[in-house]
Amino acid sequence: MVRPPHTSGQHQWQDNIIKAQRFIYDENDASYDVIVGSSLSGRLVMDRLPHMYNLSFGGLTIFDGLNILAHKETVPQRIFIEMNVVWKKEDEGFTSSINQPILYYLRKMFPSLRDEYEPIGLLGDRIIPIITNRMTSYMQKKETANDLSVEKEKHNAFFTRMLNIQIESYTQKLDLKALDESFKNLKLYVNELERRNAHVIFYEMPVNQKLCYLPLATSIREKFHEYFPVTKYSYIYAPDCSEYETMDGLHLGNEEAVKYTNYFKSQISQLSIF
């Protein structure tokens, strides 16, 4: 499978659709390992992970990626499933738009019907790089002209506000019944993938150190070990969270994304799964 270029979507929803369609209609992807994650895993630097496909969708969950895998005729040998955002359900609107039988076969036979080949999307492929270059040049000039301390102060205020929101979310009383339902659903997916001879590996994306050991994060780890014992499953745990500030408490910045991707790659090389 040739590494796909950037998506041509005009918004996050269409970006997700295009990424899913590229994976669904590629007939050679079974030879690739697959990452299934949320927007946190969307920060992984895939150029550093050859022979891997990233089924991580902005605003969606691992269950949306798992649903796509469940509908594939062949599944990859190794599937890496993110641990962080497991309590959210799949988006039925997204999965139904991907799996609609008539459209599925029409798009399979006629690639021009796929979202990435819409005229506006193709036009965007030509225009976006031009706009990006001009904006970058403009911002560089602006940063030179403006007081950088003011920009930094605004960034710090945004970061603090977003981090506090995440801290509140991670400390709220958990709905253990709903969490168990999510893990039961995940278990069904994993059992089916294993039945089809796939090896499942769980991994954890690093978040800000103030979130790492709050109730939500620790409860999720405990549930994973309960449903998927370490004696049977492989795990790639997050590195020391103090080394990652993040942009908003959850999502890695560019340099942090490179750093974690290198860590992730090094951990994969140590797995005793062929």
Please give a structural write-up.
There is one protein chain. It contains 9 helices and 5 strands. With 274 residues, it is α/β, with parallel strands linked by helices. It has a single domain, classed as SGNH hydrolase (Rossmann fold), CATH 3.40.50. Helix 8 links the parallel strand 4 and strand 5.
List the helices and strands and how they pair.
Elements: H1 12-25, E1 33-37, E2 52-56, H2 62-70, E3 78-82, H3 92-99, H4 101-109, H5 119-145, H6 148-171, H7 176-195, E4 199-203, H8 215-227, E5 234-236, H9 254-268
Parallel strand pairs: 1-2, 1-3, 3-4, 4-5
Summarize the structure.
The chain has about 270 residues and is of the alpha/beta class. Helix content is about 50%, strand content about 10%.
Strand content: 5-15%
Helix content: 40-55%
What is the CATH C level class, in words?
Alpha Beta
Q: Which CATH architecture is right?
A: 3-Layer(aba) Sandwich
Main sheet strand line-up: 2-1-3-4-5
- Average pLDDT confidence is 82
Shape call? globular
Structural class: alpha/beta
Q: What distance lies between the first and last C-alpha atoms, to the nearest angstrom? A: 20 Å
How would you spell out the order of helices and strands? HEEHEHHHHHEHEH
CATH topology: Rossmann fold
Radius of gyration: 20 Å
* Tally of individual helices: 9
Name of the CATH homologous superfamily? SGNH hydrolase
Low-confidence stretches: 1-9, 120-124
Q: How many runs of DSSP E, i.e. beta strands? A: 5
Largest sheet: 5 strands, parallel
How many separate domains make up the residues? Answer: 1
